[in-house]
Amino acid sequence: MTTSPLLEVRGLRAGYGASIVLEDLGFRMGVEAVGIVGRNGMGKSTLCDALVGFLPPSGGRVLLRGNRIDGRSPERIARSGIAYVPQGRRLFLSLTVEEHLAMLSRRGRRWTPSAVYALFPRLAERKRQRGGNLSGGEQQMLAVGRALLLDADLIVMDEPSEGLAPAIVDVLVDTVHHLVAEGVAVLVVEQNLRAAVRMAPRQLVMVSGRIEAEFAGDELLDRPDLQHRYLGVGTATAPSDPDGAGTTDA
Ligand SMILES: Nc1ncnc2c1ncn2[C@@H]1O[C@H](COP(=O)(O)OP(=O)(O)OP(=O)(O)O)[C@@H](O)[C@H]1O
Q1: Would you kindly state where each structural domain of the chain is located, as residue ranges?
Q2: What's the predicted TM-score (pTM) here?
Q3: Which helix (H) or strand (E) holds 26?
C-alpha cells in the first residue's frame, strides 16, 4: 500500500486576472524542510498565496495527505493543517506579544503560548511589548510562534530571513530543524541561498512559474554556474564573497 505524501501539488496554475504566473507547477514533500529558491518575480510568493488559499488557483490540484484543499478558503486551509508566515510578518503593531498569542491559543492544542515562549525565550522577555516595538528578529519569532499555535502539519514561510541579523537567522535555522524533528513540515521560500541550504536539505528552483530543478544539500552553494543560471547571481560576484554567493537576488 502506498501512502500519500504530506503535500502534493499537481499542474498548479494561478495568476492575477489575465496574467498567469504559475503554470503546470508540481512537487511533492513529506514531513521535511523544503526550500523554494529562484530569481525575483518567478512566482515564489504567488505559490505561497496559492497554497494557503489567498489566491485561489485556476487549475491543478493541491493535496494535503491525499485530500484536495485547492478551492478552500484560507480559514479552512489553515484548519486543514497549513499555517502561513507571510513575507513582512503582517503583525498587529498595537497588540502585545501575549495578545497576539492569546488570540490563536485554543484549549487542547499541542502548541500553547508557553511552548512558544520555551522555543523563543526572547519573546517571553518581550511579552508586554507591542508588535511595533519589536525588532525584526522578534517580529519574525512572533510570526512563527503564531503559526505554531494553529498546530499545523505544514508551515509555509515566505522569506523569513529577510532583513534579519545573522545571529537571528541562526535561531530560525535551528527552529526549522526543531520543527521537523517534532513532526512539523516546513516549506520555506528564501532569497538567501545560504539560509535556504541551512534550513532545508532539498531546494526546489522556480523559473517562470514552474519548478525547474531540484538540488540536495549544499550542491547549489558549490556551483556558481548553476547559481548564475537559476538564481541570477552575477558572474561579477567573487566566489570568495560569502554575501554575494549567499543571496539569490539578481
Ligand atoms: N497582486 C498582484 N497583481 C498582479 N501581479 C502580481 C501581483 N503580485 C505579484 N504579481 C506578479 O507576479 C509575478 C510573480 O511575483 P511573485 O511575488 O510571486 O514572485 P517572487 O518569486 O516571490 O519574487 P519576489 O522575490 O520579488 O517577491 C511578478 O511578475 C509580479 O509582478
Answers
A1: 7-88+152-232
A2: 0.89
A3: strand 19-29
ipTM above 0.90, yes or no: yes
CB 197 within 8 A of CB 204: no
In the reported structure, the alpha carbon of residue 21 is separated from the centroid of ligand 1 by a whole-number distance in angstroms of: 8
Is pLDDT of 2 > 80? no
How far is residue 92's CA from residue 3's CA, in Å, rounded to a whole number?
40
Q: What is the 3-state secondary structure (H, E, C) of 102-149?
A: HHHCCCCCCCCHHHHHHHCHHHHHCCCCEHHHCCHHHHHHHHHHHHHC
Q: Ligand 1 within 6 A of 209 CB?
A: no
How many whole angstroms separate alpha carbon 35 and alpha carbon 43? 14
Ligand 1 proximity of 44 Cβ (cutoff 6 Å): yes
**What is the C-alpha to C-alpha distance for residues 86 and 53, in angstroms, rounded to an integer?**
13
Q: 236: CA distance to ligand 1 center in Å?
A: 26
Cβ-contact 50, 14 below 8 angstroms: yes
Nearest-CA residue for ligand 1 atom 29 is 41
For residues 6-27, give the mean pLDDT.
Answer: 96
42 CB under 6 A from ligand 1?
yes
Q: Is the pLDDT of residue 77 over 90?
A: yes
Distance CA 51, CA 10 (A): 12
Work out the average pLDDT over 32-41. Answer: 95
Domain 7-88+152-232 carries which CATH code?
3.40.50.300
Instruction: Please work out whether the CB of residue 77 comes within 6 Å of at least one atom of ligand 1.
Output: no
Identify whether the C-beta of residue 33 lies closer than 8 Å to the C-beta of residue 201: yes
Determine if ligand 1 sits within 6 Å of the CB of residue 210. Answer: no
Å from CA of 113 to ligand 1 middle: 34
